[in-house]
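We emphasize that the prediction below concerns an isolated chain of 369 residues; any contacts that depend on oligomerization or on bound cofactors are therefore not represented. The input was used exactly as deposited, without trimming of termini.
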Amino acid sequence: MPKETRTVDTLPEPGAERTAVSPTQHGMTAGTNPNPGMDLFLLFTIYRVLDEFEDGIVLIDESDRIRWLNASMRQFFDLKESDVTGMPLKEFSRQFVAPLVRDTDTVASTVAGKTVKNRQLHIRKPDGEECWLECASHPMQLYPICHNRLEIYRKITRWKLAERRTAESEERYRTLFEKGNDAILVFELSPGSVPTRFVEVNEAACRRLGYSRNELLARSPLDIVPPEKIGEVLAILKQFRLNDRILYESEHVTKGGSRVPVEINSLHFPLQGKTTVLSISRDISERRRMEEIRQGAFDQIEQNIEQFATLGDQVRQPLQVITGLADMDDSQYSSEIVRQAAVIDALIDRLDQGWIESEKVRRFLRRHC
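Result of the prediction step, given as a token string:
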């Protein structure tokens, strides 16, 4: 490409070197415009406009050589225009762009009804700064620059960082969703508060119920509810008309027909225009077993306390008979019998006191356990 006589790091001034610059230097056919000064002014205006863009812009001539870089492009790659003007584009990419690129991706977009494939470059600069650029090529048919093209390097770092944070957040919540011990069931509700279909289920739900994920997603939430409890569950779900969250106990029926007692914490929210319920279902089989053990212990305590209440009377009655017979007998053993009877009576008094204390314990347990 013929070199221009002006300094390449500065934009051409309108009217400068009007007689020295030929139209062919701007990608035009000689003789296209009888006023080359106007051509230069238009060229200057185009350069000034492109130089204000935040996107990096490279002007490529017909021979695939670099004609000009805007300020953003020079800043992206720490360049001087004089270093690259006239350089073949492939050489420019090899020398200045490729060493900074960590990975690339190709994305398709639609422009004016046509599918355009752009490259996304992940760049790490020598100072450690990380950024992303989307590179696109467009023909430049704006007079007086004809038969040239623009390479546009759009900075998409903020968008890519937001995309990364979103992906990391989704991965974090997906991990929590899948790896928890509680079954998580997401399903839709009809306007009448009737469950329609599962939207999502986690591994714990599939494992507990004995279904594969696809099998469970093909079923209705009511399919895992015992038949005699369906009415109760439907009535509970109607509470979403007044409350955002519901906590209740029910049972789930597994694929094999067994039943699992569960505590269900449900909340509803809109999703894609539909009312959706997220239910966290906790297996409370162990809790039920411990409640049965505790209830059995309470029942035994009740029985023991009732026995304490009658034991004293059952012992005192024959003891009184023994004491009376000993008083009527003047033998040498009668006084000892009376003395031992008094000892037994004192023990019975202590048993009575223990019954009173046990009754206090029972009342405490009833209130707090």
